[in-house]
Amino acid sequence: MGVKVKCELLKKEMLVDGIYKFSVKAPEIAKNAKPGQFLEIKVSETGEPFLRRPISIFNIDGETIEFIFQVKGRGTELLSKIEEGKQIDIIGPLGFGTYKVQEYKNVAIIGGGIGIYPLYELTKELKGKANLNVYLGFRDKSLVTCEKDFEAIGLNKLVVTTDDGSYKEKGFAIDFMKKDIEEHMVDMIFACGPLPMLKAVRAYAIENNIPCQISLEERMGCGIGACLGCAVKVISGKEPRYGHVCKEGPVFNAKDVEI
Amino acid sequence: MNTEVNLCGIKMKNPVTVASGTFGYGREYSEFIDLNKLGAIITKGTSLKLRPGNPAPRICEVPGGMLNSIGLQNPGVEYFAEFDLPWLRKFDTKIIVNACGSTIEEYVDLCRILNKLDIDGVELNLSCPNVKAGCLAFGTTYQGVKEVTSQVRKVLTDKPLIVKLTPNVTDITEPAKGAEDAGADGVSGINTLLGMKIDIDKRRPVLANNTGGFSGPGVKSVGVRMVYQMSKAVKIPILGMGGITCGEDAIEYMLAGATAVSIGSGNFADPEVSIKTIDGIEKYMKKHNIEDISSIIGTVQMN
Ligand SMILES: Cc1cc2nc3c(=O)[nH]c(=O)nc-3n(C[C@H](O)[C@H](O)[C@H](O)COP(=O)(O)OP(=O)(O)OC[C@H]3O[C@@H](n4cnc5c(N)ncnc54)[C@H](O)[C@@H]3O)c2cc1C
Ligand SMILES: Cc1cc2nc3c(=O)[nH]c(=O)nc-3n(C[C@H](O)[C@H](O)[C@H](O)COP(=O)(O)O)c2cc1C
Ligand code: FES
Questions:
Q1: Whole-number pLDDT of residue B77
Q2: Helix/strand/coil for A173
Q3: What pLDDT, on a 0 to 100 scale, did the predictor assign at position B282?
Q4: Domain containing A22: what range?
Q5: Average of pLDDT values for A136-163?
Q6: What whole-number distance in Å separates Cα of residue A28 and Cα of residue A8?
Q7: How many domains is chain A partitioned into structurally?
Q8: Average pLDDT of the residues in A158-162
Q9: CA within 20 to 30 Å of B86's CA: A138, A144, B105, B290, which one?
């Protein structure tokens, strides 16, 4: 379960226009964090905007936690303005549904846009436990980030795609993944990204009977399972019911949820 | 210094409670704060049978707070009694169950069960804006509130009964009087203000339910005004809420006439807000040499 801590912003880096990487000192969070978990970050001391912002953990490095976010609206804009050396109020690590790190044979790890970030810690932790094939999709060249980080882990294969072909492969990451899987079966797919991508990956995995873990996003109030705001339809039981992304997720077995 | 208050027979060590629906059944926040320090815990809205709740998105942020349309998702009273109540009872705090239903019969059947449980009181939710049947249908008029409350009162003989009212009315003193005349021991409010937010790119409301209840700092002045009006209209004690995030806010409600207060959405922004509010109240008491917190209830002097 998460703790609430004030973390010093050790390093702030703009990776590409509008996307920031923050390294914060957070031993209490780093100690227990698992791949797929997220943070609830207070972006303002004035109470406006009111809610915290959920952001995934990108990297756990000793006592340091790194996260990467894209400026979307007011909250992430304010977050991006915080200066190095300042304290940030963070609750984490959150979410009991994490990516399962264990021995696999051959895995596909697929991410789209800002959805690639939680996959980095996962890929790192799977190193030596599985043959790693990573597929990262971006809209265009201006949004490509973290390619080098993934490369440095030492992968069997890394495919980077852009929708418009402005960088590396042209097309959707999922199509490259499918082609590879047809040649060489995987025993797990890990996915995170925009909803259309997740839907396509989920449908493909179910159709081909491949186990698949996906990370979901939903609008959050509390981030810890108390407000029941972040509902997702869970279909693993006898009857469908609403589960909660912040508590049971954010990572789910693809076949257990309706998206 | 005495921070104790007596909310219609519920003796609380301080006036601070956590508002229904924002604190679950306490388990999650117990990882962040010491529940023993709270005056009382008000549970998630609980119904006779399990309620699945509304589809997502259920939450969106707005200036001054947020909208929610959870739709009273809860596991039902039997599950609560078996799994959550025994756990909650380990703490030295009062337990008040927020009770909701769709029909008068449901409210009555539920309260018959609650009457036998080891709880300190019932907050009858006649004010949820997010479910189609019940709640609002009864909660907006003198007659409606009086009718449900008196039926419930007949079976809820052993527990204090607080009726939670909606601000979505022209004159909140009418339903408040309905509760009092039907034998309620107290009233509480405000519940959320019905709102809507539109995604202008999609030209659709953000919430799946289209509308949702507005809560947070932005509703505080409405809540304070309504608590004041109720305190002038009824003699039974008031549990005040809406937008409280610090000791000063709580004091404002108490001056307006609240015997105790609830903190809702504020928990989301800061899980420690309830404890900080208790500390803030004590600070205010020291600053103004107040020996007994109850002595300030309803003492606002109008201009
Ligand atoms: C579990 C989880 C992990 C995430 N990880 C990352 C990450 O690693 N990097 C990253 O850039 N983004 C991530 N996001 C998305 C990020 O939370 C939103 O982009 C951010 O909240 C937008 O805030 P804003 O104030 O800039 O935008 P606004 O649109 O002004 O936000 C308004 C409200 O809507 C909520 N909201 C808006 N978009 C989203 C969204 N996609 N998901 C959930 N709530 C949203 C905000 O939190 C806020 O409450 C994640 C979301 C979730 C749920
Ligand atoms: C997510 C959420 C869920 C709520 N659920 C309930 C509920 O089940 N029953 C109820 O009587 N009020 C419910 N409320 C209303 C609160 O108890 C409270 O009356 C309201 O939010 C105003 O207080 P606040 O501004 O401090 O949040 C809910 C509010 C929120 C934000
Ligand atoms: S955000 Fe409150 S339950 Fe998930």
A1: 98
A2: helix
A3: 98
A4: 3-94
A5: 97
A6: 13
A7: 2
A8: 98
A9: B105
What pLDDT band is residue B136 in, cutting at 50, 70 and 90? low
Alpha carbons B162 and B244: distance in angstroms, whole number: 20
Cβ neighbour number for residue A140 with a 10 Å cutoff: 12
With CA atoms as reference, the chain A residue closest to B43 would be A226
Nearest by CB to residue A51, choosing from B21, B29, B66, is B66
Does residue A60 carry a pLDDT above 90?
Answer: yes
Structural domain including B289 reads 5-296
CATH number of the domain within which A85 lies: 2.40.30.10
- Predicted pLDDT of residue B57: 97
Q: What is the β-pairing status of strands A19-25 and A59-61?
A: unpaired
Does A85 share its domain with A121?
no
**Does residue B301 belong to any structural domain of this protein?**
no
What are the structure tokens assigned to B60, written together?
């969106």
Name A40's bridge partners.
A54, A91
Q: How many domains does chain B have?
A: 1
What pairing do the DSSP bridges indicate for beta strands B161-164 and B198-199?
Answer: unpaired
Q: Is A1 on the interface with B (CB under 8 A)?
A: yes
CATH code of the domain containing B102: 3.20.20.70
**What token pair was written down for A89?**
């109020």
Q: Which chain A residues are closer than 8 Å to B263 by Cβ?
A: none
Same domain, A169 and A218: yes
Higher pLDDT: A47 or A159? It is A159
Report how far ligand 1's centroid is from the alpha carbon of A54 (Å): 6
Q: B8, B111, B128, B246: which is the annotated catalytic residue?
A: B128
The complex's ipTM works out to 0.95
Helix (H) or strand (E) holding A183: helix A173-183
pLDDT band of B138, cuts 50, 70, 90: confident
Of A50, A224, A233, the CB nearest to B65: A50
For an interface test with A, give the residue of B201, B268, B277 to mutate (most A CBs within 10 A). Answer: B268
Of A74, A94, A114, the residue at which a domain comes to its end is A94
| Ligand 2 centroid distance, CA of B102 (Å) | 18
Which residue of chain B comes nearest to A51, CA vs CA?
B269
